[in-house]
Amino acid sequence: MKYAILVPDGMSDYPLEALEQKTPLEVAKTPNMDLIANQGIIGRVKTIPEGLTPGSDVANLAILGYDPKKNFPGRGPLEAANLGIKLEENDSVLRCNLVTVFDNKMVDYSSGHIKSLEAEKLIKSLTQNLSNEHIKFYPGVSYRHILVIKNSAKLDFKDLRTTPPHDILGKEISKYLPKGKSADFLTKLMKDSVKLLESHEINTVRLDLKENPANMIWLWGYGQKVNLPSFKEKYGLTGGVISAVDLIKGIGKSIGLESVNVTGATGYYDTNYEGKAEAAIRILKKHDFVYVHVEAPDEAGHNGDLKEKILAIERFDQFIVGPILHYLETQGDFRILVLPDHPTPIALRTHASDPVPFAMKGKNIIHSATKKFCEIEAGASDKIFNSGEELMKNFLKS
After folding, report:
1. What CA–CA distance (Å, rounded) separates 242 from 263?
2. pTM assigned to the model
3. pLDDT digits over 277-286, tens only?
């Protein structure tokens, strides 16, 4: 029996006036996801537990069948796991975005989706000038990086509150700087980074080219060392994770799933869809389970880019869902599940906590005869799961 979960990050949305009160998913051409809904079941699942911030960290952990209220270690440690960063019990980890700030306002949470090679040079400069035996910077992909505070027991982060930069676009950053007993330590680092980054040659060139400079670091997603039960322990299966972003790959590694690096997987609109599908099929030839994540719809939602969001959904359907579904149909018994992790509505440009639509097809799943996989059809279904763990158990029960 083979199992595949396919996750178009942030795909779910709200009806838009520009689409005559339809959602991007409703108007996108998605024959493969529609087929799964038609020949399987459709419904909704709550991936963000009450009281938790809607984010890809919480939502993807939930979809993989882990209760975030019990198992969520913070975003930073999950990303650090993928980078192979060894952590001690007293180490603190934060996500370190390279952002663009002008006139004290958050202009761009991604510094124009800065390329990894440019970003690596900036992180190297931060390391040379701001790091010490306790402060360590680690380069990731594009604007996404990691800060580790070694042996942070003397700092009190128990009540630390931070804000994702994509939640405050166009807003005054002073209101959203870290808060808590030891927050000043982080705020000083962020402010010190401005002096260094503004004058860096990478940023002077970016300004000349009319590109957003990476002129500040933004620290958020605090956590400590990950201790999660393996996926095999919990569900009896081995498998792999396919994603471009350290967060999802780190979740996979933290629960014992193989994490595959795909050439050309960028975490943006231009990601290598075909390569991800090929990697997923290779995983399924060795294992019984694969989890495929594509970031592009979420990025389009954050950017408020309706055209790119529809295009990302269509590419996901054509180049991810189609090939993997076709492969599974030639291999005997299988189940396939498609769902976004959370909504990233164009109108909000950030994440929402609403339940997301899912479609599931395969062995012993009754046909729903639904014609279109979309939010309104899922909302009309009586299939509702109150947690990702509940959905996972149903998905694996064949």
Report:
1. 11
2. 0.89
3. 999 999 999 9
